[in-house]
Amino acid sequence: MRDKVTLSVALPATGKTYEFRVSYDLLAGQAADLMANLLSSREGCRYVAPAAADLMYADGSHAGALLDAGTPIRTLVVADDLFDGRELVLV
């Protein structure tokens, strides 16, 4: 699938990692909010989605930095900041 990237997203509240296929057409903030809402419905007793979720790089030279919510996923993929298997943290 050329128009999607598979990301490995850790959720500290549960101590688990989840895989998401994310469309290039989404903004990073939209992707974070969708992930948070999905995980909130799945892990409701341990995680409640915030009003606005963020994604943070878990590894590499950007470790600890937040993805800019207004940046398109496509832009991050083209810049090689996101790629299949990239580890992120939902915060």
Can you put this structure into words, describing what you see?
With 91 residues, the protein is of the alpha+beta class. The chain has a single domain (4-90), classed as Phosphatidylinositol 3-kinase Catalytic Subunit, Chain A, domain 1 (Ubiquitin-like (UB roll), Roll), CATH 3.10.20. The chain is 23% helix and 26% strand. It is globular. The termini are far apart.
Short descriptors:
Ubiquitin-like (UB roll); alpha+beta; 4 strands; 91 residues; four-stranded mixed beta sheet
Give the low-pLDDT segments.
none
**Shape, per Cα inertia axes:** globular
- What profile does the largest beta sheet have? 4 strands, mixed
Query: How many domains, in number, for the residues?
Result: 1
Mean pLDDT: 92
CATH C-level name? Alpha Beta
Oligomer: single chain
User: At the third CATH level, what is the topology name?
Assistant: Ubiquitin-like (UB roll)
The Rg value, from CA coordinates, equals 12 Å
* CATH homology group: Phosphatidylinositol 3-kinase Catalytic Subunit, Chain A, domain 1
SSE layout and pairing:
Layout: E1 4-11, E2 16-23, H1 28-42, E3 55-57, H2 73-78, E4 86-90
Task: Give a concise summary.
The chain has about 90 residues and is of the alpha+beta class.
